[in-house]
Predict the 3D structure of the following.
Amino acid sequence: MRLVLVGPPGAGKGTQAQFIASHLSIPKISTGDIFRSNVSQGTALGRRAQAFMERGDLVPDEVTIAMVTDRLQEDDAQSGYLLDGFPRNVPQAETLKKLLSAWDARLDVVLELVVDDDEVVRRLSGRRTCRRCGRIWHVLFDPPAHREICDDCGGELFQRDDDREETIRHRIEVYQEQTAPLVAFYADEGILLGIDATGPVEEITERALSALRRFIRLPRAAGTVEAAVAEREMRMPSDPKLRCSDADRERTVALLREHLAAGRLTAEEFNERLEAAFAARTQGQLDELLADLPAIDLYELPDATVRRSWPGYGQLPWGRRSG
Ligand code: AMP
C-alpha cells in the first residue's frame, strides 16, 4: 500500500505516520526526518537543506525529489510505504505521479489531517526536542518532570528553530500557498481522505485507520451505485468540522447562483451568502448556506458549471445534493 499523509505543520503527521505505518507494516518515509538527520551528520545534502529548513521554507524541489527518488528504490519500499512530508507542492506531486507510473505503480490513498491554524501554533510553539535522543515533549500536553531535561535519557531539551512562533506562522503561510493546493489535486484524483485531527492522539489514529479500512475495502471504479455512494462518503465526509476545499466552495456558489436565477434568493441575500461562502472554513458552514433552500439536482446545472465545481461529479450516479 502506498500512502501519503498531508496536513499543516503540527497536525501530528509525524506521530500519526509512525502509528499508521507500524499498524500497516509498511515503512514510514519522512523527508523532514531524512533532512534533519543529514543536517545533524553534516552531509552535503544537510548543508544544502539547512538554511531553508531554519527559515521554514521548502528545500528546493530538485534536491528533495532526487533524495526521495533514491529512497523509494530501496528494498524496504518495494511493497509499499507511508510518505510523511512529501509531496509538499503540486510539482512534487506531479513528479511523484510520473515516477510511480514509470514503475507501474500508483498511490492508493492520501490522508489529510485537518487542524486549524491557532491549534497548530499552540501545538508547535510548546514542542521541545531532546538533543540527545530526539524524543519530542510538549510543555502543555506532554511535559517532562523537569522543565529542560528529557525524562528518558537526561539530555537537554531545546526548541527547534522551526518551532519558534514567527517561523511557525511562516511555515503555515508556506503550507497554505504551496501544500494546501495538493488537497484539491488529490481530491481530483479521487484518492483524498480527510479526517479531523483534533483530540487525543489514539483517537485520531483510530479515526485514520477506520477511514483507511473503509477506503481500501471500496471496490475501485466498480461503477455500482453503492460503490459511488461509499466513495462519496469518503470524499465528502459528513463531519461538519472538516475544512472545505475550493471545489466545495465553488459547488456551493454554483448552487446559490441557481437559486438566485430561480428567484429563491434576492440579490442582497445572494451577495451575503456569497461572501459567507468565501469566508467559510468548514463543510458545515457551507451546508448551512443551503439548508433553507430546496435541493437542486446538479445534473440540471449547465455542464461546464458542474465540471468546474467538481470534476467528475456529473459522471457519477449520485449528483444530487439535498438542500
Ligand atoms: P517536516 O518535519 O516535515 O515539517 O519538515 C521540516 C522541514 O524540512 C520543512 O520545513 C522543509 O524545510 C523541509 N522539507 C521536508 N519535506 C520537504 C519537501 N517535501 N519539500 C521541500 N522541503 C521539505
